[in-house]
């Protein structure tokens, strides 16, 4: 495989980002979006070409350096690529979704003064994610890891004049620093044992590390400690409990970046990393159990928060948290290929849902509250149909893409005998009901029922939602979005509907990943599922007698009753279960605990170290105290140096008497 072709894939969006970022105000808006879209289109086209070469063309995987940055004490710090079927699938998904988002942005950000800056950022975001997934060593992985974090910070706080946006990007930055601290420790521990940053060396050392005990915490397995530390990094990037709190607040950024973060870039980095590290994780059952329980907890409990939210973007954000939990739980059950398969299908339908939500926001003149919508289906037919396709894929309706990936995860966890698998199975199974409930609630409140926006516009006039970036006046009729918005919706709706059906046999139950993912035979739950696989049609038809399907139906009926048939029941339930609603409104008090306990403790500790340690001991006792002691001693000595002859004579006599006394005593 040609290394120069591989280098061109991340360089194309990088060069476009630099041109749009540094020269955007000179070349203009049209040139900026044309250059960045062309850069991502080149990356997408080349990624699909590499996919064709690897899968259909019989080309071998590529694993080698493309540039040596430095050599220190025999350690090579390199830019290197590992291009196998796992990598190229991620490259194709990332670049295709990014391309759709770039085109969509032309319409969505048309009135924004930061237009060229936004295109530069999202192109840079694509470059960062490509460097992460293409890496063949931990140094480059960490570079991409931190780069996507940096660009997400810039994009979440894109509207930097808003205090809420600045708070959100700072929150994302701080929470990810917690996760990245664990990630760095994991990489450092691997380096200390293997003296290499290469994936190949680390993977080869896994069986040895699995037998090594460390004299910490009463004795802990070295590989378990390494894997848990690496996964803590994934908890931050992929927003797993308790490091999930930044993701809902990332909605403060423009909708296109919400789609890119949630669908194909930053939050998928942790899932990809654990799958890439499967040769390590497979030898640590304890670490996989930890991954399984954390993922299942996130899948169920974060999904519930989507049920009580009224902001259309935040509902989809909590959906992302829940679906990432499904992927993480699959990783913990050693169903890595199921996790990556769901990552792929989820990327399409989640990007579709976010961009459809953005289309609704445009049509509603920047209103995000679903209580102020209703009946939009007849005004925005393309948006409504594509959003329904995304919603049906999300709830795992038979024949839709999400069905083939999500139901496989539930079944794989059910077959697992790992510690925590029973708890995880019930979480992901009941999550099917929760997912259906919040998804159909969103669809019904937005596109069906009473046209509540008329009443709201009459009462409030100019009251817009959080995602407003233009000034509008008067009472507006909802309208369909322009073609630059609807074409990406259609482009994403097609794979959301079809890609699962046509790829499940090869990617999930076939040997698509080959040696890219390692699963020990005793842990291979997907192989047991594959034994009963008889094609996508039979799989979909069989689902009509399975529990996840009927739980999804129950969610549909519940949403229909509470939103369209008897909306008064929702108000009554909120009153009757006020204690539960309070807990959910407070998001299980994670934010309260972080702000009132951890943040206060940190500020108190910092203040104490400043006042006592810095001012009291370092400045007071050591620096200023030393100076004061020298000054005091100098003052004492100065009294002796009076300048009078009789005084010096007196001290000479005293000295002679003292010497004479000393000699007499010792004689």
Proportion of strand residues? under 5%
Low-confidence blocks of residues: 462-466, 468-474
Number of helices: 26
The whole-angstrom Rg is 30 Å
Main sheet properties: 2 strands, antiparallel
Mean pLDDT: 91
Shape: globular
The total count of strands amounts to: 4
Indicate the structural class: mainly alpha
Helix residue percentage: over 70%
Strand order of the largest sheet: 1-2
Element-level helix/strand string = HEEHHHHHEEHHHHHHHHHHHHHHHHHHHH
How far apart the termini lie comes to 97 Å
List keywords for this structure.
667 residues; mainly alpha; two-stranded antiparallel ribbon; globular; 4% strand
Structure report:
The protein has 667 residues and is mainly α. Helices cover 73% and strands 4% of the residues. The chain contains 26 helices and four strands. The chain has helices spanning 3-55, 85-108, 115-134, 138-156, 163-194, 199-209, 222-237, 246-249, 255-263, 266-276, 278-281, 285-308, 312-332, 336-363, 381-394, 401-415, 421-447, 452-460, 483-508, 525-530, 536-542, 547-565, 567-576, 578-585, 590-640, 645-666, and strands spanning 62-72, 75-83, 213-214, 220-221. Strands 1-2 form a two-stranded antiparallel ribbon. The protein has a two-stranded antiparallel ribbon with strand order 3-4. Strand 1 (62-72) and strand 2 form a beta hairpin. Helix 12 (285-308) packs antiparallel against helix 13 (312-332), helix 13 (312-332) packs across helix 16 and helix 23 crosses helix 24. It is globular, with a radius of gyration of 30 Å. Residues 462-466 and 468-474 have low confidence and may be disordered.
